Amino acid sequence: MSVSAEARIDIDAALAEVWAIILDLPRYGAWNPFVVGIDGPSTAPGSVLRVRARWEDGGDNVVRVVVTRAEPPAADATGTLRATLAYELIGALPRLGLLRSRRTQSLTQAPNGPTRYESREDFEGLMRAFVPRAKVQRGFEVHAAALKARAESGG
Questions:
Q1: Rounded to whole angstroms, how far apart are CA atoms 54 and 31?
Q2: Which residues, other chains included, contact 118 with Cβ-Cβ below 8 Å and sequence gap of 6+?
């Protein structure tokens, strides 16, 4: 059994523009009130990132994650574009099987349509009950709204 949080929003911007914002790690603090910092070499699979989240109550949480998927925009047979970035928690808790966390951010854009942003994180393990699910859920909603505002303002 897992605990999860998710958010989705339609963005009136090209998928490539939204993807570029997601990959621009050094600028997260300029536009994102939830994920206020990401430090790391790149979003290539295997890259280790340090992610700093700020809760609405002002508290911070810092985690280390490893990128597991980074699929750049590609069109399918219908012309629908898709892109995906995924990562998972690393460190003592997952190594000991106490808490595993996997987050996936997906973009989808049908021809001439808005870009749909979806984010989901699943938490598993003995400590999943201690995950502040309501805070994570609210953070994802704030993150999605901020991404929409950033992309629709011209990035």
A1: 13
A2: 6, 7, 8, 104, 105, 106, 107, 108
Which two three-digit tokens encode residue 71?
């699929």
Question: Which residues, in sequence order, are bridge partners of residue 62?
Answer: 52
Give the residue among 101, 140, 96, 104 at the shortest CA–CA distance from 124: 101
Q: Which residue has the tokens 């280790």?
A: 48
In sequence order, what are the residues at sequence separation of 6 or more whose Cβ sits closer than 8 angstroms to the Cβ of residue 75?
Answer: 81, 82
Q: How many CB atoms lie within 10 A of CB 5?
A: 21
Residues 125, 100 contacting (CB under 8 angstroms): yes
User: Is the pLDDT at 155 greater than 70, yes or no?
Assistant: no
Digit-coded pLDDT (tens) for 43-87? 999 999 999 999 999 999 999 999 999 999 999 999 999 999 999
Q: Which residues contact 97 (CB under 8 A, 6 or more apart)?
A: 125, 126
Sequence-distant (6+) residues with CB within 8 A of 11 are: 18, 114, 115, 116, 117, 147, 148, 151, 152
pTM: 0.95
